[in-house]
Amino acid sequence: MSSADPAGGGTGSTTATEDRQQALLEDLTTRLGDAVVGSHIRSSDLWVRVRPDAWLRAARECKAMGFEYFCYLSGIDWLPHTWPNPKVIEGVLPDADDEAALPVDENAVEEVEVEEPAAGGGIVTGYAGGDTRFQVLARLYSTIRHIGVTLKADLDDVTPSIDSWTSEFPGADWCERETWEMYGFDFAGHPNLIKLYLPGEFEGFPMRKDFPLLAREVKPWPGLVDVEQFPASYKSDD
Amino acid sequence: MAVTDQQRLSYIASQAADARLAVELQTEEMTLNLGPQHPATHGTLRIVAKLDGEQVVKADVICGYMHRGYEKLTEVRTYPQINTLINRIDWLSSFANEVPFILAAEDLMEIEAPPRAQWIRTLLFELSRIANITLFIGEMGVQLGAITPVFFAFRDREYVLNLIEEATGGRFHPNFDRIGGLKDDLPKGWIAETKQAMDRIRGYCDELENLLMGNEIFEARTRGVGVIPADVGLSYGLSGANIRASGVDWDLRRDAPSPLAWKELDWKVWTHPDGDSFARYWVRLQETREATKMVDQLLDGLPSGPIQAKVPRIIKVPAGEAWAHTENPLGEMGYYVVSQGGLGPFRVKIRSASFHNISIVPWLLKGVYVPDIITILSSLYFILGDIDR
Amino acid sequence: MFAVEIPYWQLTILKTVIVLSIIPAAAVVLGYVFLLKMMAHMQSRMGPMEPGGFHGWFQLIGDGIKFIQKEDIIPGEADRRVFAMAPLVVLISTFLLYVVVPAGPRLVVQNLDVGIFYALAVSSLGVIGVLMAGWASANKFALLGSLRAAGQLIAYELPLVLAVVGVVIQANTMSLQGIVHAQADGAIFGLSWFGNPFILTQLVGFGIFLAAAQAELTQTPFDMPVAESELVAGYMTEYSGFRFLFFFMAEFGTAFALSAIAATLYFGGWYQPFFKTGIMADVMGPVVLGAKIMLIAFLIFWIRFTFPRFREDQLQAFAWKFLIPLSLINIMATAVFKVVL
Q1: Which residues of chain A register pLDDT less than 50?
Q2: Residues of C at the B interface (Cβ-Cβ below 8 Å)?
Q3: Residue C230 and residue B370: Cβ atoms within 8 Å?
């Protein structure tokens, strides 16, 4: 039992956190060698992308470095959205770029310039880069050093497969089962790769971007499209 | 972390159960199906236990009866809409679900809420912690056969829910947190009422301590039952009071950088070295009491000022990835938000605490008796919506 | 009896009707007073307040009517005849208990010479019904519950009998009427006005009796057979409608009967110091006995609402390692005092 330390790692010490993350990245790079293919440091976290064949080795090295807390493991599909993005539905939503169309709001400030996603169905990957459509990502944390790292690895587009972490972190068991059923990633060496959430006869991988969300096919944007006007807003001569 | 004798004995017992499974003794095993409709699982969790007499040889957890696919649903919603959705993950402390998601979005937008908003956030966060854990403290009694504590829990929790309702308009699903601040300021007279309610909750904690802690039967049912060594717990991803009860001195409120006001309060992280069900109960009880003290301090030091930072009317989050996690009543809750610059996120990974806390159950249930299944499940404390998301 | 001689067959019918009506009446009284009101107030709530007007007194009768209206469901896999009979077997064992309990000098159905022996014997008949219910339900929870009930009965029948042996030694008789008279005529420290209730000399025995009775009744902290958080409802899981009502009535009827036996053994039964014989003793007897029963039932239910439950192995250990040795010591001490004094 120890009392709270008001000085430790406050919000203001972003640069100190980034320094620690930098040191950690260097340590990881020396341990994993050329298996580290990409990295990114941002105030909230450290991202490291490793080669898929070094996925299990990365877990082992991290555990040896004191990252003994298994936070989560999941996947990501970088294929762009297949359903219409709300902002392209013409005339329904006030155009965000057209300030005049908006009701006057005194709190509104200059809008942050947003980078438009690349057009033409191209894949845009996130921090630490990526070469393929699928990525597996996992986060480890050290409860003593109070620092975490998000690991990523690229997976093959057609037969996504990677080593299982269950030998190092038994908690990865359920996470890998979930990722397997949701994304169709195969985890080599998993002792019991069966469905976790979905019914046994379910077909398809629902978290993949090309898996249609039926509710959205039928009714594209409830809440944005179908907002009924309040009775008071109808004019009397309507 | 030193491993106690109890932990060693429990480990040996589970090894013995393994060995028995391998040797296949002549006794006939019975498969007992606890759930999905069973009073102990308070929700639709299913546990399939292979029994030798009343001893569990092997147990499997089957979840997903309430899987709602939130991670998929977030991809077709705007940020304010998601805020409503994620209220339903851990439904006993809904406000605490909103905070890490909003923090992740604010991190990406590089907005920071004004201090008063941060303090009120912390205040509501701790109130929802109290609303959540008081129920656990009573619930544990009813799972062990003492029906009285749960009624005390409902009685006193009511006051906290009323407070949350007065401040946010919602008893269970406040949907009160906004990117860059809060929906509203606190109502008049709320601070005095809250202080009274906190006194009441402290009285409730004392009452429960008298009722259950000194009770020989309660101790006999919980001490040495479901011992989790610290390293095993960490590798399974256990967090919150479950891992602090195994002696790991780790609390994200103290240890993680956060814009919320925890750092400015004087409080204590409670740990217990035993790692058994009793330790988990004890830690949670102390945390509830600690939370009431934190609420008192927050009420005293509440800064004045605006409660909403300047944000664009239509919220568009710049491209990027962010991870925000907080110490929720059930454990670490985090959101990994990937944005590609639209009105909604590209991908949200929801790291919910109960999912990982329950994943240790198959390991933990080896070699225990049927009544201990109930003790272990209720001492690990899960909310089904937090497992199935 | 009552100056008018009633023919034997009429008397028998009268006695049967009275005893048969006692069981639902006892269930309603105990259920209402303790379950709906005392427990509710201990837990800071009201309990039912609407039915019947005054503090919801009609609630349990209404519940009874509801149970009778319900469909009588028998699971497809169940052994139908055994399943249907089991609640009756349990109820009969409760019914038989009332035969020997005296409510006044002449108010007893049958004053058996081995009254207490008979009472303890028939009280354990109920577990046959429980085993039948558990086995015939074709449900694993029910089976586990009924086996636990059987194991519990074997463990707790022993301290129950051994605790009673102390009273029997002191009273020199096994007839319950005789035990009441022994307490009425006895004296302690030269004071004979209120007799010698055995609670004063058999306090340890009373404690053991109460604990064992708690286990017989499958009340918390010994309610593993019906542990609702583990076994749903134990052997009663598959029962519904009036068969469930039978189990409910049997549970509370047995609680009432065992309280009556405890009141007779340790509190002097129907005896009060003012009217020792005559018609007034018969009139006052049921009232006094009823008051003593409510006192003991209060203890039983108070414990039930306060404690968590034991685990099965802890329960067995408590019986064999603590209660039985203690009751043997109690018998030895009683016997020694009996010989010495």
Answers
A1: 1-13, 84-121, 225-227, 238
A2: 39, 42-45, 140-141, 144, 220-221, 223-224, 227-232, 305-314
A3: yes
